[in-house]
Amino acid sequence: MTSTQDLAGSAPAGDGGARPPAPAAPRRTSNVLTLMRDNVRTSGIYLAFVAIVLLFTWRTDGVLLSPSNLTNLVLQYSYILVLAIGMVMVIIAGHIDLSVGSVVALTGAVSAVLVIQQGMPWWVGMVAALVVGLLVGAWHGFWVAYIGIPAFIVTLAGMLLFRGMTLRVLDNVSLSPFPEQYQQVASGFLNGWFGGYGYDVFTLVVFAVAVAGYAVTQLRARRARQAYAQQVESMPLFVLKLLVVAAVVMAFAWQLATSRGLPVVLIVLAVLILVYAAVTKSTIFGRQIYAIGGNLSAAQLSGVNTRKINFWVFVNMGFLSAVAGIIYSSRSNGAQPAAGNMFELDAIAAAFIGGAAVTGGVGTVVGAIVGGLIMAVMSNGMQLLGVEQSTQSIIRGLVLLLAVAFAVYAKRRGSGVR
């Protein structure tokens, strides 16, 4: 006759049949130096950003962080940050896109022809621009994913092709102005909803809610890592990090509130960052992008439909290029044949400075945004100081080279290669 003990499985003799409970996984905490050492690439980006901001704040006697200049900084570089979001996903997948500047010009040109020349409603131009961007992305994705031509060649051809199409669409002339509603995308502000006392209360409320949401998500993420016995910072350090982030964000909000309020384009950018950060971190599609860039053969053997993923990566890049095209044409209040010139290099630089690996498989949306902000602060700071354009290009090129060299060093350090 089978005993209860036999059904439960064999138990060590002498323990009365009771199985000892599994020991709880230890919760590991770490100080700031350990975390910075273990995450040298990420921490280096943030430290560099802080150092650059402090340097130019000192050199410009505080003008860099003045309310009006911070507002202009958001308005002037928002489209580059939008492109950086898409570009970092392309680079993570192991590709590159050299055509985004031309696509920005083409989508803005299509919108301008429909709205300005043909008198259609402003929203029709935006929808048309998005459709064109999706079609361009599908064109690139087809040649890269299904024909097998390297993305460098496909998008280099696209850079020439879509620049030529822009010239055809505009007939080599500029078109302006857009209706006021269209201009609000890049130049509009939300303010006065909750009143004001020399500053915009609505802007402060929005940022305060954002800080509270960030604190909640960080607390949940910390608890999740603890549950899997992953290394986390000590509680005092965790609280200090939240307080520093809250102070920086609210100081930025105060500067905006004392200027013109909350820019509409900043809301658009924030939504894109949140959505794409979630997509890359928490979805199957995002994990498959990292898998393809990290090891294409392993991803194929694991059952990842690499052609499908690569196709949609480029479709997404086309979509975000169209969004950037709408923002840029709205900001410039028109469409020009030379619009978007060299934007692809700024977007690529933002991704690499933000920690993306040249070989693919590494990078984050937030890192690309920080990389874009580093480039924006440098450009804006040097303009305020009256630095010559040639010198600006030299400095930006050196910063990009040093950022990639640092990423290579961090990778070799992590793998033990010297």
Describe this structure in words.
Part of the binding-protein-dependent transport system for D-xylose. Probably responsible for the translocation of the substrate across the membrane. It is a multi-pass membrane protein. The chain crosses the membrane at residues 40-58, 70-91, 98-116, 122-139, 144-162, 197-216, 237-256, 262-279, 309-328, 348-374, 394-410. Residues 1-26 are annotated as: Disordered. This protein is mostly helical. 72% of the residues lie in helices and 2% in strands. The protein contains 17 helices and 4 strands. The protein has helices at 4-8, 32-38, 40-59, 67-92, 100-117, 122-147, 151-170, 180-187, 201-227, 235-257, 264-282, 284-294, 296-301, 306-332, 343-353, 365-384, 389-415, and strands at 29-30, 189-190, 232-233, 262-263. The protein is globular.
Give Rg in angstroms: 25 Å
Q: Shape from CA axes?
A: globular
Oligomer: single chain
- The percent range for helix content is over 70%
Task: Please trace the helix and strand order, writing H or E for each element.
Answer: HEHHHHHHHEHEHEHHHHHHH
CATH architecture of the largest domain: Orthogonal Bundle
Briefly, what CATH class of the largest domain?
Mainly Alpha
